[in-house]
């Protein structure tokens, strides 16, 4: 079981996306993701989100909203992943290069033109809505199968 965060920084009709193109053997290689990653020992979801955003972008989160919780059973063929999804609304600092991939501000209307995981195309639309969501996304051998969602 793995706990992680996924964060979407947004400003002026654009979203900061990470093109996963720098790490050899990256399971997400070639995909575009929000920022985030695995919890370290003793971290809360907020601690992890703030640390990951800083490590991957150099930006310090000032204000974020928890939008949802996603379960990915056996996502990488082995582990269940549990992901806290955030929209980051305010930050400070200067954007810097990431060791994970290339960072780009993408116009919101162009996000779905990117090479996203199929499930991301579904839940990213929920980020605009006020209710909190809890979902399960099923993949098998890297292929998207189905999902279930509850809005609160």
Which ranges are low-confidence, i.e. pLDDT below 50, for 5 or more consecutive residues? none
Helical stretch tally: 2
Overall body shape: globular
In round numbers, the mean pLDDT is: 94
Termini distance? 25 Å
Order of helices and strands: EEEHEEEHEE
Q: Work out the strand percent.
A: 35-45%
Radius of gyration based on Cα positions: 14 Å
In total, the number of strands is 8
Helicity range of the residues?
10-25%
Structural class: mainly beta
Largest sheet: 8 strands, mixed
Task: Describe the structure in your own words.
Strands 1, 2, 3, 4, 5, 6, 7 and 8 form an 8-stranded mixed beta sheet that branches. The mean pLDDT is 94. A hairpin with a 2-residue loop joins strand 1 and strand 2 (14-19). With 152 residues, this protein is mainly beta. The chain has helices at 45-57, 118-123, and strands at 2-11, 14-19, 32-33, 60-72, 81-92, 102-107, 133-140, 143-151. It is globular and about 40 Å long. It is built from 2 helices and 8 strands; from the N terminus they run βββαβββαββ.
Summary?
This protein is mainly β and 152 residues long. It has two helices and eight strands.
Quick tags:
152 residues; mainly beta; eight-stranded mixed β-sheet; 2 helices; 8 strands; 12% helix; 43% strand
């Amino acid at each position: 079981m793995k706990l992680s965060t996924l964060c979407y920084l947004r400003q002026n009709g654009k979203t900061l996306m990470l093109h996963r193109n720098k790490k050899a053997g990256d399971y997400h290689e070639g995909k575009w993701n929000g920022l985030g990653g695995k919890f370290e020992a003793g971290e809360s979801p907020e601690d992890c989100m703030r640390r990951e955003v800083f490590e991957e972008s150099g930006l310090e989160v000032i204000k974020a909203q928890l939008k949802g919780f996603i379960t990915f059973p056996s996502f990488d063929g082995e582990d269940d992943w549990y992901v806290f999804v955030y929209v980051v609304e305010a930050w400070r600092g200067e954007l810097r290069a990431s060791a994970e991939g290339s960072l780009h501000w993408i116009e919101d209307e162009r996000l779905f033109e990117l090479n996203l995981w199929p499930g991301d195309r579904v839940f990213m639309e929920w980020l605009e809505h006020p209710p909190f969501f809890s979902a399960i996304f099923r993949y098998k051998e890297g292929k998207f199968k189905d999902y279930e969602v509850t809005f609160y």
